């Protein structure tokens, strides 16, 4: 059902104007009144919870310093947004305005105007998801993944280079944009303040966020205290230092800016099983199921971890999609700037918990890909199962998918992986560390981790292209060049 429309009066009133309908037909008999407000260039604009029939448009501020927009107009014709589409925004405690558009058609491009103008900026559009389980009209779903990209908030340009690398890759691949934008945590350095979110995310990915839904996960830097927090309680969010990184934040719904900024599904609004919390969630897009886990907070508390694990099992058991991807922050297999053999005095305890308690769930319930950040490097594992111990316990002969020569298969060329492995089971996962979206630092003793096929200190991001029968994941550098890739077929 379409959300009730609340007319919003502008300074000159709600005027019925224009002579174009959604089909751009200028026949006077088919004229449709268009919105008459004025477009506002928001300081912060992004899309949330996009599904086959709905989306949330969220914004804050006016770049011109004038009154903030209070409504959105939308339609399928960029040049004629119907007057009866105007929808009033609700305002959160932190001053974000958001509009839920529902009753939309699947796999359809819509244009929108923040401020209620009758004509949309060409950058302000979105395409609804296909009906769950079906492919997009072009046959391909493209997912863009960045991790630890928030150094843009410290004034460094690296995350912009990574963004430009993805855009160059897309241009070379027929200008296909991303359908989904996944962020692996540490999206806002150094302390996850509201200001750092602005600089690290909204000022860097402005054009992407205006047209592509963003789905994040929680990293250690989202919890303040320069990333050193070992608390399981978001209410304990604290900024250390003199506040030069952006404190104090606007009056919060919660002290944790991450939870104030993003509107994440708690009740299965975009598919998947209701989690009851924004800290972890799942959603469907076309024929892919995506799960975002909380490896920073919920994982540190016994009861919260048990609840998240049970939810994860139930969610994966209910999942019927062709492909399943899990994202979280702390990597189970890494020898980059973090070492998966070290708890780092408790800061990296979640690494051990993910490896020992969660990877068996991934492998039992058919997860295909698992992505983490945290370690400032790119590392990609073989197609593996059963490595819950330290790096010296990895045994390729028993844990990795093997090629015809009984060596670990690469996932490339004639060694492409199959979803159902040679043992006849869907029980293996490719684990990737993509914490190289904003900076690369150093490696730790034992590099490279023996479970990993490819490891490289290079800035970049991951692009996944998938259809019904094949998934290809590519590591793309700042020039748009693919440095590593693998294929899984069904």
Task: Provide a descriptive summary of the structure in words.
- With 490 residues, the protein is α/β, with parallel strands linked by helices.
- It folds into two domains: 28-127, Sandwich (Immunoglobulin-like); 141-489, Purple Acid Phosphatase, chain A, domain 2 (4-Layer Sandwich).
- The protein is built from seven helices and 22 strands.
- It has helices at residues 158-172, 194-202, 206-209, 257-261, 302-318, 349-364, 396-399, and strands spanning 44-48, 54-60, 71-75, 87-88, 90-91, 97-102, 109-114, 125-127, 141-146, 180-183, 214-216, 281-285, 288-292, 323-327, 369-372, 378-384, 417-418, 429-434, 452-456, 461-466, 470-476, 482-489.
- It has a seven-stranded mixed beta sheet. Strands 12-13-14-15-18-16-19 form a seven-stranded mixed beta sheet, with no helix packed on it. A four-stranded antiparallel beta sheet has the order 1-2-6-5, with no helix packed on it.
- The longest helix is centred in the middle third of the chain and has 17 residues, at 302-318.
- The protein is globular.
- It starts with 43 loop residues before the first strand and ends with a strand.
- The model is unreliable at 1-28 (pLDDT under 50).
In short:
The chain is α/β, with parallel strands linked by helices and 490 residues long.
Give the SSE layout.
Layout: E1 44-48, E2 54-60, E3 71-75, E4 87-88, E5 90-91, E6 97-102, E7 109-114, E8 125-127, E9 141-146, H1 158-172, E10 180-183, H2 194-202, H3 206-209, E11 214-216, H4 257-261, E12 281-285, E13 288-292, H5 302-318, E14 323-327, H6 349-364, E15 369-372, E16 378-384, H7 396-399, E17 417-418, E18 429-434, E19 452-456, E20 461-466, E21 470-476, E22 482-489
Parallel strand pairs: 9-10, 10-11, 13-14, 14-15, 15-18, 17-22
Antiparallel strand pairs: 1-2, 2-6, 3-4, 3-7, 5-6, 7-8, 9-20, 12-13, 16-18, 16-19, 20-21, 21-22
